[in-house]
């Protein structure tokens, strides 16, 4: 996690870094700091607060024209979020500065060694250890900064994305990565660095995404130089053209990114379908899937690995693949999978799912599955992300940048892509007949319009939220394809409103959660027409008999549940397999309104970060 921004060139680095940090606050927002320098002056400002407060703090200081700078927004790993632990960190000589994203796992051993050499530490961070290790290496080896960074990093165990600056070399920045992303924007005689490319979208379209184990020397007015850290070979950097623009990462008139992203779902799903669902040809075309279709058709098993919301999408994938491909599917938390010495067969297909493409546990799980010989086919949103590079093939969801920490459009586009894959493979395998296939395609093509229509009239969801924003608990129930949606609904409420919420398969209610139900317990039940409607109606009766408050998500025109529930939210009619694309929407909005009514920070909930690049 943590966000890094740096700049070297002729522009004023201050606004570039502050604006850039604000765009990266989704990565962490415990504390923030900035370092600015020119050939004669330096200034460091740090706050145990957000970037907005950092900006106010800087405004109190005297102005000077800097030519280089680096900034950091932190998600604490080593040491509490306070001013001392905020970045940038300084070496003992006062010459070297670092911003760091990641964790140095052997920092304790390195720190003890440095203490023996009379280094003093002013923070609890592993990053301060790293900058002093670089300083000590420079002293011992009498080498240039880049080389010293390289030698020091070869002693480090862990993950890092770093920017290092030496006051004695004011025209140069050294950046390096292992496991934590870094994008380098190439300007005219200048360089921009970011944990992703959003900080420099308006300045350049040319970007180099540093690969793991690479170090880059950014010298003002000179071309970028990249080397591999461990084998010390010069690398020819691949320059990509940025596709996202500034509009994609602004609120566009909405109060919050989360709300904007909820309302972007029709467009996001259209983008996920574009060029893949070909109605006129009655076909689904995903070139990377076609390239590897035999792997899927001959698979003994599909393993889906992911975390959080992406794991919930994976559960929907399990229902889709088992129905349409008739292949057994297991859905694994990446963090459990990687530490379990998992059994993987050579004819397994592993599908990692990740919005950011940077989640550390998912990335590590992929590496393990790869080592064991599995074929890896990823589903990612962020183009060029670490996970997308680590896979043998894959599909992008094309949801566009998701900035609200609570995932919304990423989830529905992941389900869209999983649906396309399952339908295509089901058709190839002959499990889905021609007529049914055509019906499914028609239905899928109508999803964006139906969602658009649903989102036009959602005032009732806000009204329902007014009854429950003070509840301490909430239960979510669903069956079949909507069981993962119940989990996702509960997660959304927990993370942005801090209300304790549990998602359960509705039938499991009788095996424990029913004990929680009384007149104070709101129970959100997904009770759409197709699927296990009668069973879920019985579950609703059971809740009602125990006086629970029922908020039911029903299919348009439903009358039965309406008579039983305290509140109903109608969603468009669909086949059961596509119902998560609709049933998720009211749950996203319900959480959003409740969080607002509780005065919570919807886009940046406490303790969370969008991109979990630590284990
Ligand atoms: C929840 C949420 C997280 C992420 C999880 C995985 O709203 O956003 O649970 O889904 O951290 O992240 P990705 O998909 O980037 O791997």
CATH arch. level architecture of one domain: 4-Layer Sandwich
Helix percent reads 25-40%
Number of helices: 20
CATH class type of one domain? Alpha Beta
What is the distance, rounded to the nearest whole angstrom, between the alpha carbons of the first and last residues? 10 Å
Radius of gyration: 26 Å
| Total count of strands | 27
Q: What do these coordinates show?
A:
- Strand 18, helix 10 and strand 19 form a beta-alpha-beta unit.
- This protein has 20 helices and 27 strands.
- By secondary structure, the chain is of the alpha/beta class.
- The mean pLDDT is 93.
- Among the domains are: 246 residues, Aminohydrolase, N-terminal nucleophile (Ntn) domain (Glutamine Phosphoribosylpyrophosphate, subunit 1, domain 1, 4-Layer Sandwich); 147 residues, 3-Layer(aba) Sandwich (Rossmann fold).
- The strands form 5 sheets. Strands 3-2-4-1-10-9-11-15 form an 8-stranded antiparallel β-sheet, covered by helices on one side.
- Fructose -6-phosphate binds next to helix 10 and helix 17.
- The site of fructose -6-phosphate has 14 residues, from helix 10 and helix 17.
Task: Give the helix/strand layout.
Elements lengths: L2 E6 L4 H11 L7 E7 L4 E6 L3 H9 L8 E7 L14 E2 L5 E6 L5 H10 L9 H16 L3 H9 L6 E7 L5 E7 L4 E5 L2 E5 L11 E4 L4 E6 L5 E4 L5 E2 L4 E2 L15 H7 L1 H9 L3 E2 L4 E2 L2 H5 L1 H5 L3 E6 L1 H17 L4 E5 H4 L10 E7 L5 H12 L3 E6 L5 H5 L2 E4 L12 H21 L4 H22 L3 H10 L4 E6 L4 H15 L2 E6 L16 E6 L5 H13 L3 E7 L4 H5 L2 E5 L8 H18 L18
Helix pairs in contact: 3-4, 4-5, 7-14, 7-15, 10-14, 10-17, 16-20, 17-20
Bound molecules: fructose -6-phosphate (F6R).
